[in-house]
Structures are given as structure tokens and as C-alpha cells.
Amino acid sequence: MANDQSKYAPTDRTRIRRYPARGTYDRATVHAILDEALVCHLAFAVGDQHQHQPTVLPTAFVRDDETIYVHGSAKNGLLSALAGGAPACVAVTLVDGLVLARSAFHHSMNYRSVVIFGAARELTGAEKARAFHLLVDKLSPGRSTQARPASEREMALTMVLAIPLEEVSAKVRRGGPIDDADDMALPVWAGVVPLALRAGAPVVDGVGLHQPPAVPAPLIEK
Amino acid sequence: MANDQSKYAPTDRTRIRRYPARGTYDRATVHAILDEALVCHLAFAVGDQHQHQPTVLPTAFVRDDETIYVHGSAKNGLLSALAGGAPACVAVTLVDGLVLARSAFHHSMNYRSVVIFGAARELTGAEKARAFHLLVDKLSPGRSTQARPASEREMALTMVLAIPLEEVSAKVRRGGPIDDADDMALPVWAGVVPLALRAGAPVVDGVGLHQPPAVPAPLIEK
User: Worst-scoring range by mean pLDDT, A15-19, B61-65, B91-95?
Assistant: First the structure.
């Protein structure tokens, strides 16, 4: 399967050990999760060899083909440490439902998640500008052509990092509870409470235009 | 402020450096965020002194006073490493809105997040049973008294870890875009698209009871 271009090649760090049937290395599945999620959780270890202090922070991100971009203040010490090539790990999680089983033990959640291992690279010039546009467009499609573009000074205040999608896995749980056969007749409601992140009506700032913005498709109630 | 019992004491690791006005150490704010969120992102560094490989994974959790509990398979190597006292960092994030500004640079998100630094401790006996009940009840209030209780074997298959709320900070962004004065007259829609995780109608598993389960209050449309 190592030559199957539709999948990432599993590594020792990305091989799914718990519930391997829920694991996938399928690029299309990974891309869809990354494109729907608004926030990633970015982890890195700081400190010297005597102190492996992990830190994890939420941040906006966007996927561009086989790369994700994150951004922040150029003065951000943690992003600067990452830009220096420190090993990073990124998790992206969508919660899709509460799974209520007949037994306490089999309670679960439905979810779609991606974990990425890699090192970040700081972007400059045209690459940086492109990533910045994509980050803005992720919040509202077409937005980067509507809002005032970033000035040179604003771009200098912003650090943009790229993390390649090379060492990547996804894990997906779908469907109802998986109860033991002996429990199926118990008088307990069992099933799934579906969950979804949904957009409400846009709230205009002050005296604004009346044309509301585009909202990313996954956030619109079906 | 170090003696103010309504707040966590900031440390070098939890002091908010970027947008400090958005940071808070208020226990009530932290508790509310932890009680609403279903998933945390748990980070830790593994490997020897030559390889500070961070790993971050999403997992269910629940708060109990000044502790959070996470659980997983007793065979989970990463949880076992954490139970051994490896330093951990936990991030919990609620995404509340897309903030669309008149300038690309001032685009943002509304969010409420908590970051916790600490080491985990494995629970046993009555403490473990209590944590397990709370984890189940978080998915649906009262559920731990309705579903079949975990057997001794099922409890042995489950590892429950406690992480104390000692080194904790929260960060909250609310409200509309903060545009430059020069941009206020630009013909660009500006405002907020509110976002919320919402529960849909429960989907019963097979031929089940007709009484639907309780759904956690924050997930119910107001």
C-alpha cells in the first residue's frame, strides 16, 4: 500500500493502535476533516533536555493541498520556537454525536479527527501572502477580495507557518452504540444525539452594509 | 492577587502574553468553559532526552471541582506514559463566532479557551468509580444511573486519570471586529457570524425505548 497515492504512508507515530478499524490514512478523508474544522490544536515541547514541557494551543488554520498554514503575531514566542523547526504535533477534531449505550462502559462519541506530525517552516513573500488570503477566505469564502488587503506593516506583524501533510492519520467513529448481546434487552434508551457546529444569523457591526457575508458551507444547517 | 481564592495564581507558563486583556484566571470562567466543552486536547512529550516529540490527542473529559478526569483503555500506551507522571498540557476550546472585519488583518474568531499545565495521576477504587460516573453523566445528565453499571472486568479495562486544576488560564474573545478608524467607512460588511455546537433530534438505536435521553443544556438551541 506504500505506493497508493490516495493514502498517506503510516509511520510508527501515526499507526492507529486503539480501534484500528476506525483509523484511516485516506487523503480525501483527511482533507475533508481539515477543510471543515475551523481550529486546530498545535502542540510542541519547549525547554531543555531536562524539561520536556509540552504546550498545546488552539489556533485557526487552513489547508492548501498537502500543507496546512497557521498564523499569529510575529512577536509570539511559541510560534517563533516552532518556526525554528521544533517538532510539532497538530490535532483537528470534529465532534459529531453523543453515543448513548445500554451499558455505561460502551458510551462513546462520534467524531472525526486528524493528527499530523511534522515541523513548521516560516513563510515569506508570495507564499506568505497566499497563505494569509486562504486563512481569511476560510472564515468567509471570497472575503480576501472584499476586505482591505493587509498593508506591508500588517504583514510584517504577522508570522505564517506551514506544516506539511506527510505524517498524517485520521480516526473516525460513526453510527450507533455497540452494546454487548446480553445488554440489548435492557430497558435503557440507546442511540445517538447528533451534534454539529452551526452558524446563526450574522450580526452586523454598527451601521453596516446590508448584504450579509458568505458562510462556510459546513456551518449552514442542512 | 495571589490570595484571591476566586482566581488561579498565574505562573510563568500560564501568564497570557498575547492580548493580555483577553486572559483571565477566574475560576468560575474556567469552570464554565470546562463544563460546556465535550472534548479536550491532551498533549505530552514522549521519547528520550534527544527527542522531545510532542503528541496531542482529543479525548472526552469531565471536571469535578478542581480536577479534570480523562479515561481510555488500560492498554493505551500514551495514557500509561501520562499516568507515569510525564508533564502534560491540556487545551479546551469553544468556538463562538467568525469575526469579519473591514480589513483582512483584523479578521478573527470569538472563542473561549482554557489551558492547563500539570501531571496526571491514575485513579483506583472509589475515586475511579466516581470519575467514571461523571464521565458518563457528562454525555447525558443522569445517565450513569440508567445504563448498566460497568462490571469489574470493564473497570479493569479502563484507565482513569486525574489532572489537578492548579496551573490554569483562560482566554476569551467576545464581540465585534476591532477595525482601524481609517477603515470604518469602507464598503465591506463587518460583524460576527455566531457559531454554536448544537444537538439534533436523538436517533434511537434499533427498536428502542421511546423516552429520549437528557441532552446537556449548552447543546440545546436557545
Answer: A15-19
Which amino acid type is present at position B60?
A
| Nearest partner of A96 among A33, A174, A189, A170, judged by Cα | A174
Torsions phi, psi for A127 (to 5 deg): -60, -40
Amino acid code (one letter) for B33: I
CB A205 within 8 Å of CB B176: yes
3-class state of residue B196 by DSSP: strand
Share of chain A above pLDDT 90, in %: 75
Sign of CA dihedral A216, A198, B34, A117: negative
H helix runs in A62-204, sequence order: 77-83, 125-139, 152-157
CB neighbours (10 Å) of residue B51? 11
Nearest to A42, CA basis, from A199, A159, A198, A215: A159
Smallest CA–CA distance from B175 into chain A, residue: A205
Which pLDDT score is estimated for A3?
A: 66
Q: Are A100 and A138 in contact (CB under 8 A)?
A: no
Q: Which run of H or E residues covers position B28?
A: helix B27-36
Residue with cell 490544536: A41
In terms of phi and psi (left: phi > 0; alpha: psi -120 to 50; beta: otherwise), the region of B143 is alpha
Q: Of A39, A27, A79, A116, nearest to B56 (Cα)?
A: A116
Nearest Cβ partner for A91 among B41, B147, B154: B41
The predicted pLDDT at position B69 comes to 98
List pLDDT tens digits, range B78-134.
888 899 888 999 999 999 999 999 999 999 999 999 999 999 999 999 999 999 999
Q: For residue A89, what pLDDT is reported? A: 96
Q: Label the pairing between strands B87-100 and B158-164.
A: unpaired
Whether the CB-CB separation of A165 and A175 falls below 8 Å is answered with no
Residue B65 CA to residue A37 CA, distance in Å, equals: 30
Closest in B77, B98, B215 to A139, CB measured: B98
Give residue B28's identity as a one-letter amino acid code. Answer: A
**How far B177 CA sits from the closest chain A CA (Å)?**
7
Select from A19, A179, A199, A49 the least CA-distant residue to A111.
A19
Distance (Å) from the C-alpha of residue A90 to the closest C-alpha of chain B?
7
Q: Is the pLDDT of residue A49 over 70?
A: no
